[in-house]
Amino acid sequence: MNLLRAHLAQLPPYKPVEPYEVLARRLGRRPEDLVKLDANENPYGPLPQVREALARLDYPHIYPDPASRTLREALAETYGLPLEHFFVGAGADELLELIVRVLLEPGDVLVDVPPTFGMYAFLARVYAARVVEVPRNPDFSIRLEALLDAVRTYRPKVIFLASPNNPNGWPVAREVVEALLEEPLVVVVDEAYIEFTDDGGPLGEGNSLLTRVPHRENLVVLRTFSKAAGLAGLRVGYGAFPLWLAEAMWKVKQPYNVSVAAQVAARVTLQHRQDLIPVVERLRAERQRLLLELPRLPYLEVYPSQANFVLARVTQGSAEALRDYLAREHGILVRYFKQPGLRQHLRISAGRPEDTDRLLEALHQWQPA
Ligand SMILES: Cc1ncc(COP(=O)(O)O)c(C=O)c1O
Fold first, then answer.
1. pLDDT tens digits, one per residue of 124-181
2. Is the beta carbon of 162 within 6 A of some atom in ligand 1?
3. pLDDT score, position 200
4. 3-class secondary-structure state, position 35
5. What is the full DSSP assignment across 228-249?
6. What's the CA gap between 59 and 56, in Å, rounded?
7. What kind of fold does domain 6-45+276-365 have according to CATH?
8. Which of 40, 195, 213, 351 is the most exposed place for a label (fewest CB within 10 A)?
């Protein structure tokens, strides 16, 4: 039977990520013995106050507040912005999808700047939009003139800019954002990793664009509790939106998109956000160790990063073989890429000091073929 929407046939088949426990079993290790540096999660997990609040969750049998009111009030207070600008989703991923859902018609163009977070192009394709790529420079900076040409030619309604960018970890240049804001399109700055940047202040408030949102009709800033706050498994993210866009997203969102547990965990995290400072500092220190130590290996080149991960190019031997060796021989998981612009690259998340120790020891033993 061929009843599916025609454009879906062009999407690659779904390849589920292997669950953590299954992967551990396949590698012959206990899950707690794996070193998981492949998804930029926070190995320290939630704050202790969050774990306590989750343990005594009052109303798991009642549907969550569809408007995530108390969480949005806490966000409004934290940032000193009106409540109406805040929208909460099941991860920043859900917010990305809602943006695409309300803005893109089938056949519209999304201008993407690869290598970057794959979700942007993926969602555009799911919604039958066409993806036009303006690849980055070899150092992953954005080619601003080429991008402005593409924007003026294709008239996209929205552009997504991860800052810091995933997978290289460097913030987008301010001049790129400013130039795009002058064009007639929505500029979504995805600040999933901003807490880890050097000049951002320990909680990312220093260089975030979030507080500019009420002053612009076309700026969206996304944030997440998945990374610095250690809540990736609970799925909760937020964003500041122009009111016209938030209004449209309210119309099309699922009523109970953010679970009771996720709303509580996010709220308690905000309440105790000062306690995240030492956690972020520890992860930043491990990132610095990776940036210092990895280039000492004769077969790795490392790009500068201000996120909780680093991108490395494997210059001798195969990056895929190195990924497999780390997993099989040492139980260390890193992310391997093979798409254009990222051939022979590995992305390694910052972990705990003992994770870095194990990684470096394993890398020193590796003999590139
Ligand atoms: C740039 C970027 N944006 C958004 C996300 C998704 O975040 P969330 O877990 O809040 O959906 C990620 C996750 O890896 C990311 O790298």
1. 999 999 999 999 999 999 999 999 999 999 999 999 999 999 999 999 999 999 999 9
2. yes
3. 65
4. strand
5. TT--GGG--EEEE--HHHHHHH
6. 9
7. Aspartate Aminotransferase, domain 1 (3.90.1150)
8. 40
What's the pLDDT tens digit per position in 307-329?
999 999 999 999 999 999 999 99
Mutate to test the pocket of ligand 1, among 95, 160, 166 (most ligand atoms within 8 A of CB): 166
Residue with CA closest to ligand 1 atom 2: 192
> How many CB atoms neighbour CB 115 within 10 A?
20
Please tell me the total number of residues recorded for the chain in this structure: 369
Q: Which residue type does 122 have?
A: F
Q: Which of 226, 311, 347, 349 to mutate to test the pocket of ligand 1 (most atoms within 8 A of CB)?
A: 226
Quick check: 34 and 27 in contact, CB under 8 A? yes
**Ligand 1 atom with least separation from CA of 237:** 10
Domain ranges of the chain: 6-45+276-365, 58-273
Task: Look at residue 64 and tell me whether its pLDDT is greater than 90.
Answer: yes
Q: Tell me the pLDDT tens digit for each residue of 82-117.
A: 999 999 999 999 999 999 999 999 999 999 999 999
Give pLDDT tens digits for 172-229.
999 999 999 999 999 999 999 999 998 766 566 678 999 999 999 999 999 999 999 9
**Separation of alpha carbons 341 and 239, rounded Å:** 29
Residues whose CB falls within 8 Å of the CB of residue 136, separated by 6 or more in sequence, listed in order: 113, 114, 115, 116, 142, 143, 341
